[in-house]
Amino acid sequence: MTTPTSDLVVIPGQTPASLPWRAAKSVLLLVCCLLVAVPFFSIAATSLADTKQVNEAGGFVLWPERPTLEAYRAILEGGLVSQALLVSVGVTVVGTALALVSSVTLAYGLSRPGSLGHRPVLMILLFSLLFTPGVIPSYLLIKELGLINSYWSLILPTMVNAFNVIVLRSFFMSIPRDLVDAARIDGARAGQILRSIVIPLSKAAIAVVGLFYAVSYWNAFFNAMLYMNESAKWPMQLVLRTYVVNNAAIGAGEAAASGAALPPSQALQAAILVLSVVPIVVVYPFLQRHLRKGVMIGAVKG
Amino acid sequence: MSLLTQRSPRSDPGAAPPHDGKRGGRRDRSLLWFALPGVLIVLLFHYVPLLGHVIAFQNYQPFIGIWHSTWAGLDNFAVLFNGDEDFLRALVNTLQLLVIQVVFVFPAPILLALAINSLISERVKMIVQNVLYLPHFLSWVVVVAIFQQMLSNGGLVNVFLRAHDLGTWNIIGNPDLFQALLTSQVIWKDTGWGTILFLAALSRVDTQLYESAAVDGAGRWRQTWHVTLPALRSLVVLLLILRLGDALSVGFEQIILQQPGVGLESSEVLDTYVYNQGLLAGDWGVSAAVGLVKGLIGVVLVLGANKVAHFFGEEGIYRR
């Protein structure tokens, strides 16, 4: 860039666009951000609004005038939603722990090209990316295994995600080989090397993969819809589908109302929605920080 | 697969790295044990179900089971050719959605990445990215719920319209607008996230190229055309190939969630057809046959597209 106009910051690279263009682009990006942010805001506001305001607005509000936690109290005092929260938290915690153990060990097992069985195992893993098993065959397998209505049907099938394993593997492989070899010469076994060298050096990558697993367990709904027939075992996402997406009436059974009238259904639905989004929003900054470090990008590019 | 295994031993299957002699090989045997639990899970939940496809050739009855059901030969596949209305409807809807998504959804992240990339302030760039990545991490249930809460009769948009006496705009549950609704949901959820790869590619563009282009008298547009876009080309090819492998999958979870509201006419696609025919209507054999053919077409498309990419000198998902 030879002669930038004098009122612009000189940055290396492409000639900056003219002012109207840059303004147009800024507006576009602002609109995009608002399209993401406003729905969140309005749903949170509605979940906090009281009956009178929701009825006056005929539905959604942008700002709760008399904020109340009535809706949250109603759905959290026992009943289906509280049960579903427990199920979701349990499945997410247990699932993420097991997924991390099996993925880290698998990635470690694949981290040394040329070791026994390396190639076939790697191929098994990679080819699983090319196709998905299909709804019907997966259902038949779970049925044959006797896992219908078992929480394991929500945990086991998604425990090893080939993509996550590849991410971990390429991270493990970037650990200097001399480090590992030195430990071996000192007599360390593979298990000790994993524990005391590989895992401590890959904390960031393991954390990101763990968060990815946690997010996917928390968000999973289709397996629960297929395999869980008893509503008492439903996770949060399935409750959300039934009472918000499909608009089933929220009655006393679902939200333990203590005699008093229930808050308006708009507020209850918004509260369920907020509860199923909160964990994602809470872990998001952590994910964000690691994404910025380029862990994922580096891995994607090999 | 350059995407995945640049460091994998493509070039040295037999010839192991220098200090992996025979002793090394034996010593590394213990590594196989570490891989075992994970591999078993993959085999059990990704490969064993493939055997379940045999019911495509059976008169499968759940209460009789896979082992005792009678064989049907290719009867179940007849539905693909005999002009069955339900199947054709699913096929047509799938292809329509595929075209819509390739035309509208695929380029969206490229445009957004170009816009983000031209932001000068790093801080603003970061904030915009943080906001726009978020929807990717929400589940489809949440996204569909948010859209319904915003656009339904009591939703934010209609509350606003009514407050200003503009009538109501019936979007949710309207079959005519269903495909547009699906497309806008996909764009809302994944466009931001989709920019991440393009931004990474853009950040690697050699800035000297712009400068020499400017010296040669190229204006901003020609710089974009001759420097920026070529830098994205192999990534675009790669992503198009991967999309092609999924060509016949057009958002199963997203659609199955909204199907009760709009009816099958506009919402039935191949994936939902398999689900509805098999698990709900009990026509297991036919539904498995359709699922099997769909899966095979996917694999053929990926491999074929990869060949085409090689032909045009791109790397594709794996190297020759």
UniProtKB/TrEMBL annotation, chain A:
The chain crosses the membrane at residues 27-49, 85-109, 121-142, 154-172, 193-218, 267-287. The keyword Oxidoreductase does not apply. Keywords: Cell membrane, Membrane, Transmembrane, Transmembrane helix, Transport. InterPro entries: MetI-like, MetI-like_sf. Its main location: membrane. Residues 85-284 form the ABC transmembrane type-1 domain. PROSITE patterns: ABC_TM1. It is a multi-pass membrane protein. The keyword Flavoprotein does not apply. Belongs to the binding-protein-dependent transport system permease family. This is Carbohydrate ABC transporter permease. It comes from Nonomuraea antimicrobica. The lineage of its organism: Bacteria, Bacillati, Actinomycetota, Actinomycetes, Streptosporangiales.
UniProtKB/TrEMBL annotation, chain B:
It holds the Pfam family BPD_transp_1. The chain crosses the membrane at residues 31-48, 98-120, 132-151. CDD domains: TM_PBP2. Its main location: membrane. The keyword Cell membrane applies. Residues 91-305 form the ABC transmembrane type-1 domain. It is found in: Cell membrane. It comes from the Bacteria. Keywords: Cell membrane, Membrane, Transmembrane, Transmembrane helix, Transport. Belongs to the binding-protein-dependent transport system permease family. This is ABC transporter permease subunit. It comes from Nonomuraea antimicrobica.
